[in-house]
Design a protein that fits this description.
The structure is a single chain. Helices cover 32% and strands 24% of the residues. By secondary structure, it is of the alpha/beta class. It has 2 domains: 132 residues, NAD(P)-binding Rossmann-like Domain (Rossmann fold, 3-Layer(aba) Sandwich); 119 residues, Dihydrodipicolinate Reductase, domain 2 (2-Layer Sandwich). The strands form 2 sheets. The chain has a 5-stranded parallel sheet, sandwiched between helices. Helix 3 links the parallel strand 3 and strand 4.
């Protein structure tokens, strides 16, 4: 089995968990480099790993890896992804919302034989949505409910003066398309972007966002009406150390890496 060198861009809750999994051993993959805004702090965070891994600037990642896992702020996606795609390599993207405003990255992948992979992340059922999209999907709706702390600071809330502190009842803070939601909640709603990319696109996928003080978990419900099936799914995610991100997000990346070289692949 050929071994793929994997770099991680961003060493927050997700990036660190993926780094630890790679260090523990994922068949066909080896952690080769890490990049983070604060490289000194990043070096301390991975000091416990068995293997010594260089912490380098983003611009140096491509020369050190065959695959990059993007776990960084959405604005950095082009800087991280473009060199890998130009070299015909793989980019695993968690900031799925940033793809919606960067069509040039998809063109780069197509022109140079690269590949952008969006893992399931904190969502479920993307395989079913993608299968339904091979036929005709009439409608896709997503309802997201989060504890207020998981939405604080979102640009949409700031821009519209929506206060969600001290809530004592659920409050709907957004209703619109997945494209609008991804723009207004770039750190919160990558799941909506991923859903739209798997199905009927960001302008036809509808989205509701609720701040619910009674919740401890981030919850997402998907409703799909298609000519092949009508289905609904819901998931309740336990937050990671970053309340905006569920623990299952990192696990979905680890599962994605395992699939790259697996002799049996399901889903």
């Amino acid at each position: 089995m050929s071994v793929r060198r994997v770099a991680i861009a961003g060493l927050g809750a997700v990036g660190l968990r993926v780094a630890e999994a790679l260090d523990a051993g994922i068949p066909g993959c080896v952690l080769s480099a890490v990049s983070a805004n604060d490289r000194a702090a990043a070096a301390e965070r991975i000091d416990h790993l068995r293997q010594t891994v260089p912490v380098v600037p983003i611009a140096e990642l491509e020369a050190l890896a065959d695959v990059v896992v993007e776990c960084a702020p959405a604005a950095l996606l082009p800087e991280i992804a473009a060199p890998f795609l130009t070299a015909g390599k793989i980019v695993i993207v968690l900031s799925a919302g940033a793809i919606l405003g960067n069509d040039a990255l998809i063109a780069l992948a197509a022109d140079h034989g690269g590949q952008i992979i969006v893992p399931t992340g904190a969502l479920l059922g993307l395989d079913a949505v993608a299968a339904a999209a091979e036929g005709t999907i009439h409608a896709v709706r997503m309802i997201t409910r989060k504890p207020p702390r998981g939405l604080l600071g979102a640009p949409y809330l700031v821009e519209h003066g929506i206060n969600i502190e001290g809530l004592n009842a659920p409050k709907q803070v957004f209703s619109g398309t997945a494209r609008e939601g991804a723009k207004g909640f770039p750190a919160n709603l990558n799941v909506a972007a991923a859903l739209s990319l798997a199905g009927i696109g960001p302008d036809r996928t509808s989205l509701e966002i609720w701040a619910d003080p009674a919740l401890e978990r981030n919850t997402h419900r998907i409703e799909v009406d298609a000519d092949s099936a009508s289905f609904s799914m819901s998931i309740e995610n336990i937050p990671s150390e970053n309340p905006k991100t569920g623990k299952i997000t990192a696990l979905s990346v680890i599962a994605c890496l395992r699939k790259l070289g697996a002799p049996l692949r399901v889903g």
